[in-house]
Design a protein that fits this description.
2 copies of one chain form a homodimer.
Chain A lengths: L1 E5 L8 H13 L3 E6 L1 H10 L9 E5 L12 H4 L4 H10 L5 E4 L3 H12 L9 E7 L3 E5 L9 H19 L5 E5 L10 H12 L4 E6 L11 E3 L2 H26 L3 H9 L1 H10 L8 E4 L5 E3 L6 H16 L2 H11 L9
Parallel strand pairs in A: 1-2, 1-4, 2-3, 4-11, 6-9, 7-8, 7-9
Antiparallel strand pairs in A: 5-6, 5-10, 10-11
Helix pairs in contact in A: 1-11, 4-5, 6-7, 6-12
Chain lengths: ~350, ~350
Amino acid sequence: MKILLDVMSGDKAPLDIIRGGTMAAGDFDVDIVMIGDEQIIRQTASDNYIDISKDNISIVHASEVITMEDPALSIRTKKDSSMAVGLQMLAADEGDAFVSAGNTGALYAGASLIVYRIKGFRKAAIATVLPFETPMLLIDSGANIVVTDENITQFALMGSIYMEKLFGIVNPRVGLLNNGTEKTKGTQLLQDSYARLNECEAINFVGNVEGKQIPFSVCDVLVTDGFTGNVVLKLTEGLGSFLFKKLKGIFYKNVLTKMSAAMIKKDMSVLKKDFDASEYGGAPILGISRPVIKAHGGSDALAIRNAVRQAIAYARNGVIVDIAHYAIKSSDCGSTES
Amino acid sequence: MKILLDVMSGDKAPLDIIRGGTMAAGDFDVDIVMIGDEQIIRQTASDNYIDISKDNISIVHASEVITMEDPALSIRTKKDSSMAVGLQMLAADEGDAFVSAGNTGALYAGASLIVYRIKGFRKAAIATVLPFETPMLLIDSGANIVVTDENITQFALMGSIYMEKLFGIVNPRVGLLNNGTEKTKGTQLLQDSYARLNECEAINFVGNVEGKQIPFSVCDVLVTDGFTGNVVLKLTEGLGSFLFKKLKGIFYKNVLTKMSAAMIKKDMSVLKKDFDASEYGGAPILGISRPVIKAHGGSDALAIRNAVRQAIAYARNGVIVDIAHYAIKSSDCGSTES
């Protein structure tokens, strides 16, 4: 198993990405290919006492970097960027999965343009696991601002296969994010999506899901368009930060409250992780013919290690084969392209 | 000042609504008109030792009730419902504001059909104050699933006037909820809305706001369509419940953690209120020619008292006159109907 790692992209690149990749190389039975400026990689590793001389770590040089501010199509112009080089290697079968904490738009565009979509799937989607009462996959969590009911149904199908294969959830429950539970709720698109999801035998559709139900394990896959998914994902992140900031203020008030903080410190750090999507590693771009994993932009070394772990599981579990199989087999679930 | 109160609608009706109305009659210089089945009102009050014999409390009989499951247009068929009777009284100037914790769809439809919109405003919108670092008005928080850039601009204008008049915020900062801060983000509708908000001199537009920024006082008015607003409002509620449930689990684990809970109990209850929109009372339906306030469906007596307090402030502060004035004066802010 060979994981291609973009070590130049992300808020904490290159140091945390190099460190995370090195951790993964030590923890898992895997080859790590660090893609980026070779001199910077070697210098950063050396300056920070990170040993990248292990047999299962190699470097592939790439002279450019796609920044967070670059447009999505910079994946075409910056041909020697770490992201473009990694995707080209993945497309050429020179690795089993690609992990990047970089520019989401560029990664999504590159995955579609360089690696290609699975035949039969009109759009790929970003799928993020939210760590609530039980893990819940939010798909699309940011890629497609405008979708059709066919896209929604295909997202639901891909998400179901992912949760079954990677989280062992048999017959995952699929919910449609809406502004009420009745089937007449929402826009025409959502009403059409409801009908289509309901008809599709391969999907265990449990109906509409409202915002307030999201944390309480009412479904295993929550399907929505990429705009609403982005708002849900980011609001969850924002409210988590807000709450922990407030709690910190409460606990650091005086000696007594500091004592109470000490008593529950461990449990609080577990709870904090519940709000931290990076704990589950990265978000797969489902619908792409080979495994592409988007790690959170703010990923630290541990998050990168976890994203590599997830990439290994994704590449190993035959998710993509199963998704491709469905696209060909079932035309009732929204796969009209073939 | 006479406040019309629908005592038959809401999850905790009639008891908590009657009790909340009675609290308001005691706490504020106001006349409370309780609208609903007279026999049920008198019996409920008597069974629960609530004294509704005060001079500033009166009852107006209404034989029907619109339930949470009724369709929005039941406001037309159930003409003798507490909600319809209250709105008719408001339209006939037999009260200064109407407060209901009932069916949002029916209340919104009834406000538009019975009380009418302010001339020049195409759509009314539900405006909810979210109690984060600083109060932030979310508009539209649930009424209009499909909107235009003109609607968005009018919502921003109405919301600005409300926050200035009721919360004393001079020149309120208006943000547009989007999936990124760059002006090229979002659907065509959002890009058009961005341009229009930017051009309108009466609006202090501060640009796009992402989900993760929402709790951190980046704007005083957050404008969005009613679908996304509903998701934001309900997800905030859901994540708040989820977190406090988890914290309870941590604190009730053993004797030591229970001690630490005791030390910070007061601060925690303050924090809990920060996540509880009902603390600010109800949500005005802005764009209606007279004050209509939607109290949260789950409102208890205190929340109803607070909603009445807000109704008084809304009726007293000339918000509607100011909104109407703007519709006539400025055509650059999206008021093309006149």
